[in-house]
Design goal:
With 220 residues, the protein is α/β, with parallel strands linked by helices. The chain is 35% helix and 25% strand. Bound molecules: adenosine-5'-diphosphate and magnesium ion (MG).
């Protein structure tokens, strides 16, 4: 199972009486690509950081596969249950491609040889060929870096993928390639994919589109 539910979640930043996220209830199902759209400042990133376990709601709760985040070890939640993909890729620049993908597995106690074998499979699944495995991220194109970032996400074992503007630094073809990979992860492998995006071409390919407006989330 891999579903994320928010129940009446609100969030106000310290010192602010305004709710950046205002009473959001939503069910993000497994095997679906969900897009969250909305103007700048509407609360999308705040919502993502709550789902990522980086911030706790000031009211309400989030549940992963029926389990409340408020009762969980959030470090473990972030390590095992959710994985983030960022606009700026966020690969480790001093680690090679394969070392980047091995990193979360080593964090989770997977033995080095086994991690390398699995990393190769994940890299193959996102179309990164073997001759690129020993390169540093700086020597890859943006599209390739994002695909490595997705391979690293898969290596974490997390079944919920949170993506913040994952295509916005990419050209059209590379952006579509990333969307195709995320769609296949949801539809063929049961991942729950949640993408924050400004890009209508991404949103129109999602199974569900949600619009954030002044902290409030509505189905489109
Ligand atoms: N660290 C912070 N402290 C105070 N207010 C913040 C902080 N981060 C964001 N905000 C405010 O919360 C609201 C939602 O921001 P954000 O979630 O970043 O929106 P979006 O990602 O949709 O652009 C905005 O009004 C923003 O100014
Ligand atoms: Mg944002």
């Amino acid at each position: 199972m891999s579903e994320l539910v928010l129940e009446n979640v609100s969030y106000a930043y310290k010192g602010s009486d305004r709710k950046a996220v205002n009473n959001v209830s939503v069910h993000f199902e497994e095997s679906k690509v969900n897009a969250v759209i909305g103007p700048s400042g509407s609360g999308k990133t705040t919502l993502l950081s709550i789902m990522a376990g980086l911030d706790s709601p000031t009211e309400g709760d989030a549940l992963i596969d029926g389990e409340r985040l408020s009762g969980m070890d959030l470090d473990q939640y972030r390590r095992e249950k959710v994985s983030m993909i960022f606009q700026a890729f966020h690969l480790f620049p001093l680690l090679t491609v394969i070392e980047n993908v091995c990193f979360p597995m080593e964090l989770n106690g997977v033995e080095k040889e086994a991690a390398i074998e699995r990393a190769k499979i994940y890299l193959q699944s996102v179309g990164i060929t073997e001759e690129k495995h020993k390169r540093y991220p700086g020597n890859l194109s943006g599209g390739e870096q994002q695909r490595v970032a997705i391979a690293r996400t898969l290596a974490s074992g997390a079944r919920v993928i949170l993506a913040d503007e994952p295509t916005s630094n990419l050209d059209k073809a590379n952006g579509q390639n990333i969307v195709d990979i995320l769609k296949s992860l949801a539809h063929d492998q049961g991942y729950c994919v949640i993408i924050v995006t400004h890009d209508p071409a991404v949103a129109e390919q999602a199974d569900h589109v949600w619009k954030m407006d002044d902290g409030v989330l509505r189905a489109e």
